[in-house]
């Protein structure tokens, strides 16, 4: 007689294993492996990110002599300031000039220098009232980062390891959002179970750590998703895919045409890259004239950058560089021969995705809302770092006397319905295509999982064989 036939009438039917929950066990195993293996990268990115968030304020303090000058109401023409900088460096034409944005600030005159790394220029800081040289420092890229901020930025972005080091930050940014979503899903599922059971157990040991981990995670989940999404835009592989996707849907950043015949243009980051092409020289007086025209068009904020033409046949560019709210990044291209406007790009005309990208990057860098923005980023970064530390503490507390804590049970997908399995596989493929480093590491997780399963089955077979070969107590007697 079968077990089913002998079961008493009215007894509950054993649950179908395929109907049991499968999503939460799958999220639990993903969260465990990703947190365990990628956690160190996320921790380093979080701590270096917290330090970077404060660099705009630290920079103003460390380089106060270079960035500030005795506040006066008068100012010499920009041409005189440029000539003073040219005389200081021994000749040469600036690649860019940032006039003093407000009384008490200095003018930044930037020169190409082959001894400096790529995208780095030599900046001479000039008192706009007296043309006194206040300092001479290397500056990096379109952000105009000074040495302290550039050093911390490079630590955060690549651990000072160059292009290979950027893999770490892309790995951290790509997995951060996935781990955060998996953890939030586990919290929601656990909350539902607790409400059904309506029981509370004392918070001690592992359970206390788990409660802290959940509380911090739920508080930081939106911020973690934001940092993950905006951080990916800087990554070498996933960032390129994001840029291609934006261009495909018409959300790319508009390009300013800078050639006098209108045949081609340059993007936002097509300057500060190195020495000037062809040794093209310009009249210093043109800086005042071009800026005056730009002020009447759209470059009317205090923070602007003037870029002379790199070669014959190209226009001057005046670009707003005001990154705090409200965003002002309008740009205009001008032919200095007749002061004719070649092209203009206004932030108000950016596609929505381009605006969101600009705002997201500025929030991520802590420049959108000043010190308040920076303090929020520091708190968020420290919270993410605490999540990693709490996660490892939980793993350590769950370990047996010997060895390490076991991973959550495998086999969740085998209990999923066909549509669940298909959805998971489709999501994994899509994520792997958009975020390549996630795809590679996810494949590594699967391989590790299969090896662990093979090892466990092999151990069980060896144990059963040992039990079968050992004499029974009756035989021994």
Automatic annotation (TrEMBL):
It comes from the Bacteria. Keywords: Membrane, Transmembrane, Transmembrane helix. InterPro entries: PepSY-ass_TM. This is Uncharacterized iron-regulated membrane protein. The keyword Isomerase does not apply. It comes from Microbacterium enclense. Signal peptide: none annotated. The keyword Nucleus does not apply. The chain crosses the membrane at residues 30-54, 172-193, 214-234, 375-395, 416-434, 440-456.
């Amino acid at each position: 007689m079968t077990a089913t036939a002998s079961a008493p009438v009215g007894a509950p039917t054993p649950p179908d294993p395929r109907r049991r929950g499968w999503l939460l066990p799958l999220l639990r195993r993903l969260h465990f492996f990703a947190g365990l293996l990628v956690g160190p990268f996320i921790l380093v990115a979080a701590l270096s990110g917290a330090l970077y968030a404060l660099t705009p304020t630290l920079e103003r303090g460390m380089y106060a002599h270079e960035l500030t000058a005795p506040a006066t109401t008068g100012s010499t023409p920009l041409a005189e300031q440029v000539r003073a900088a040219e005389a200081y460096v021994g000749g040469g034409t600036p690649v860019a000039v940032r006039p003093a944005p407000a009384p008490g600030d200095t003018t930044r005159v930037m020169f190409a220098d082959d001894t400096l790394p790529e995208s780095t220029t030599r900046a001479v800081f000039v008192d706009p009232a007296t043309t006194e040289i206040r300092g001479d420092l290397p500056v990096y890229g379109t952000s105009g980062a000074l040495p302290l901020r550039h050093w911390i930025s490079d630590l955060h972005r690549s651990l000072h390891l160059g292009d290979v080091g950027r893999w770490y930050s892309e790995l951290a940014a790509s997995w951060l959002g996935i781990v955060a979503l998996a953890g939030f899903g586990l919290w929601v599922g656990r909350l539902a179970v607790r409400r059904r059971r309506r029981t509370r157990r004392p918070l001690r040991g592992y359970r206390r750590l788990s409660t802290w981990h959940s509380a911090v995670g739920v508080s930081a989940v939106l911020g973690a998703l934001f940092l993950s999404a905006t951080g990916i835009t800087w990554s070498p592989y996933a960032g390129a895919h994001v840029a291609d996707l934006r261009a495909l849907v018409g959300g790319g950043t508009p390009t300013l045409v800078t050639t006098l015949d209108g045949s081609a243009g340059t993007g936002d980051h097509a300057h500060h890259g190195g020495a000037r092409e062809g040794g093209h020289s310009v009249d210093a007086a043109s800086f005042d004239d071009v800026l005056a025209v730009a002020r009447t068009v759209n470059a009317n904020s205090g923070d602007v950058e003037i870029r002379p033409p790199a070669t014959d046949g190209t226009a001057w560019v005046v670009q707003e560089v005001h990154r705090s709210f409200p965003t002002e990044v309008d740009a205009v291209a001008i032919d200095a021969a007749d002061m004719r406007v070649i092209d203009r790009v206004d932030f108000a005309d950016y596609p929505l995705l381009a605006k969101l990208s600009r705002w997201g990057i500025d929030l991520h860098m802590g420049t959108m809302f000043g010190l308040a923005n920076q303090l929020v980023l520091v708190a968020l970064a420290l919270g993410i770092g605490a999540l990693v530390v709490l996660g490892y503490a939980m793993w350590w507390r769950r370990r047996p006397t010997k060895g390490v804590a076991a991973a959550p049970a495998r086999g969740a997908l085998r209990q999923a319905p066909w549509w669940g399995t298909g959805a998971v596989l489709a999501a994994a493929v899509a994520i792997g295509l958009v975020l390549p480093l996630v795809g590679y590491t996810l494949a590594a997780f699967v391989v590790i999982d299969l090896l662990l399963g093979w090892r466990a089955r092999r151990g069980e077979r060896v144990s059963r064989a040992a039990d079968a070969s050992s004499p029974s107590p009756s035989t021994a007697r």
